[in-house]
Specification:
Helices cover 44% and strands 17% of the residues. It is α/β, with parallel strands linked by helices.
Amino acid sequence: MYFTLPDGNKIYYEIRGDEAASSTIVFLNGLTQNTGSWLGVTQGLERDLRIVLMDLLFQGKSDQPDEYLTYDAHADSVAALIRQVSTTPVWLAGLSYGSGVAQHVAVRHSEIVKGIVLMSTFARATPLFTAMGESWKLAVKMGGYAHLIDVMLPTVLGASYYENPLIPVDTLKALRAGNDLNAHQILKLMQGTEARGDYRHRLPEIQLPALVMHGKEDLLIPAPIGREVAELIPGAEWQLLDRVGHTLNLEAIPQSAAAIRQFISNRA
């Protein structure tokens, strides 16, 4: 389904799970992910939750404007969709890029959110993160998304995944290449992160239940960066997963589903 924003751009979204459920949870994708990236996790939640999957602008099937969007602008588009699909506050879960946008939704639109789950999250760019971002941009410009996958995967998959992959890495590369992302949308999303700057000073404004989950083997965003987010959000819970890298919705499917379910049920 598509939702048209006030500026005319369209966001793609899907609704799954129990339509009659008392709780709705909205999932926000990582940088190069789409709605399909969450299907492993959401299969374990569909029994008693109403689930909304969405592509941010520049992701998946959503529109690709000419200019990049700030995280605040992405947050406003998420809030507009939430108001369209739910008459009551929702739970919000985001991975990496999506977790950053979720932080901004929680600050700017707290009235429509019951709580947030931040996975592989960050509030600032470390020098290493910036350096990796520069290598990703160069890969996109040199060889498009297919080349980016080769550069990206060793930084977003933990070492343990390579030892015992849920999906063989070559198969995963082929599947990801089939997403057919173009340089424009990837670079515009990355520009949004560059423009964000340091957001740590806003995190104490989040007065919502929060769960911060991180992989111990995350190379892109080391665990102390995620822990920093948890410490700055009042009352946030912190969960560190062993033998898991950055891509929790692939590397830690059962753990993620169980943690999300427990987090919501404890506050329902």
